[in-house]
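Expect chain and fold; see below:
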Amino acid sequence: MTLRARREAAPARDEGFTLVEMVVTVTVIAVLFLAVAVMLDSSLRALGAAKARARGNDIATQGIEDLQRFSFNNLALCHPPSGTTPAGLETWVTLPVCPTPDDPTEQQAAYEDPCNEPAGNIPRREYTCRRNNIDYTVKRYIAWVDSVRTTKRLAVFVEWTDAVGRHQVSQQSSLRAPDQSAITGLAPPKFSSALPPTVTSSAAPSPQSTLNVTVSATNALVGDLRFRATTENLSRPATAQLTTPIGAHAKNQILDIAVSAGNTFPNYNGFPIIIENESFTVVSGAGTNNWRVLAGGTDPHGAGLQVKFVGDQVFATMHTIGSNDYPQTSTVSLVATDWTATSWDATVTAADGFRFGAGSQYVSFGILRAADGKRTAAFAQTRLELCMEGTSCAAVDRPTIQTTSVTAQPAVGYVPLTSGGELVNDLTVKARTVNVSDLDTVSVNFLTQAGSITVTLTPDPSGTACPAGTNTTPGVACDWIGTLSKDRGYRFSAGTQKLYFAALQVLDMDPATIDNGSTASAESAALEFRQ
């Protein structure tokens, strides 16, 4: 084969890319770059969405922490957020009085939110936070957890739309009432005055330092003893009729009911009612005849049944002799004498069966509001002097309280309180008595935000010897001691108050002993409680 023939037989060699190859190559590269671009865009969008979600969680955390800074007493809303309420948050906590005019946009200075208006004192239910050109819509809920209203559920929902789509995050927490005195919305009940007791046989003018009361040889009252008080922010009992039947329902279910006008029911939400032994709580609609209620049971109820509000309680507390001849505390319920529930009255007669020992005592008055369990108390400044019929009030065997003391360590001239009203240090209380045995009772009574509290004292082993002439009877104790412990969680209001001491004897008519059922009382010096 010639050289030329061999060259012609050899395969042709490319001198470059053909058009088809170029197109294929460019297409492959474009696809690869597009895939990379899509992946990069997706990653950037995912990163942006993650950052947006992180900001949404931060806003939700900010919203829930802002609610948690409110005291339990002030944690409520004037209006529920717009839209459908999430499950479990239907029983929202309301304020009975809101700023006027009622502005749905809540632009009044009283409303606050941590994003725009942090200065108000009412939580804003709905607001918008703008972060990195994204508008975050915040809705906050405050709802009751239980029918007895001891715990509130706080919930914050945050919604936004970003490049990925629509999103929502939420945070929830619970807050339990520190004590029965702490509850939202209702102005605290209080005494305008705890009027001095009066007796039918003694019409001494008020005020007076003491009131003489006669007791028979069987320790019964001679004459009547009257207790009176004037109060604020209370409601008397009321009744009406159910005008729409209630079908079978679940416990804690929200129901709409209608009632007749009836008596005057409270004009604030949250008060309890009873229908045929089933308890309900009025969630909304107070002041009208159409209520939304929280069911406490499951039974159906027909139209025409009685709807009952038991009313708030005002009572007087006094020291009496029990059936076992030992001292006890007895309570007398006062009845509202007007529809505004400001005047309360009760009369105790011998037929009521109370037994009294001779001596002195202070009467305390108490309030228990049905809607929220709030309590308060006051002492009548007039001291009762109980005298046995036909004998002198100054009988030699009557107990007396000679001295009292209240001390704290370190002593700073006042009683320091935490911001919540709790004691910073323990208080030591002491009393020195005459004619009191170790079978008898010595106690101290004081006022807290949760009402009147009594602490029993015990004989003080480190006390000095009894004064001459007082230790002739075995078992006599002269020095008594007790502690008001900061660990008990007593919550005091700032201001000045006295503590009231009482010595209460067992009723034992054995002439060889000094226990004859008599009582003694004394005030401490005024103490200043300072936060």
Q: What stands out?
A: Helices lie at 3-9, 19-68. Residues 180-185, 201-207 have pLDDT under 50 and may be disordered. The two ends are 120 Å apart (CA to CA).
